[in-house]
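Box S1 | Example of a co-folding query
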Amino acid sequence: MFLSLAFVGVGLLAMKANAEEYFTIQDGELQRPTGYREWVYVGTPVTPNDMNNGKAAFPEHHNVYIDPESWAYWKDKGEFRDGTIIIKELVSVGSKTAVSGNGYFQGEFIGLEATIKSKKHNPNEPGNWSYYSFSTPDHAALTDTAKAFAAAACNACHQAAAADDFVFTQYYPVLRAGKGTGQVATGGFTSSLK
Ligand code: HEC
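Box S1 (continued) | Returned holo structure for heme C
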């Protein structure tokens, strides 16, 4: 255990020396990120139509991932680094019953959104965060690129209601537990539920 922790420590140092961005912005458009299902998964909020008079703004499950280098930085410093990308993959509400009971179970992938914190790319956005969607209007496909939304469309609500630097960490226990611990991702390492 000691050896493996030391090894990860060296790995983190190596990453810091060579900070990598997990996205490409060309001519003001974000290229559709790839490979994010291999990143760090932080949670799945769902705001189903049934509980919102049939008119939820985002009626599907939202599987949320953070890029691995930003996760390492978050654990070390307790902040989102310049260059953070967080993905929100939309998944339809599929079945509402299972042998375990009634509920909201994940159906199919139906969309993709992202937010990026970058002084270089978003010098004038509140908190340097920009917001993107790759979902087509019919949710049947994804676009190759996306332009950032105007701050009023996305950024403003995040600024007003998100718990930690525009990110809704109040709904992501993985992020809350990892924040600034300086440790290998917990879960099973201690007897605490954190
Ligand atoms: C009315 C408030 C509101 C608006 C407007 C809004 N969001 Fe969010 N967003 C949320 C909430 C609440 C969450 C977390 C819970 C959830 O996913 O339902 C979230 C989560 C996210 C996440 C995951 C990372 C995070 O910050 O928690 C992304 C990415 C995201 N939204 C993108 C967008 C985009 C793109 C737009 C504009 C098209 C947008 N949001 C507009 C409230 C909002």
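The two ends are 19 Å apart (CA to CA). The mean pLDDT is 90.
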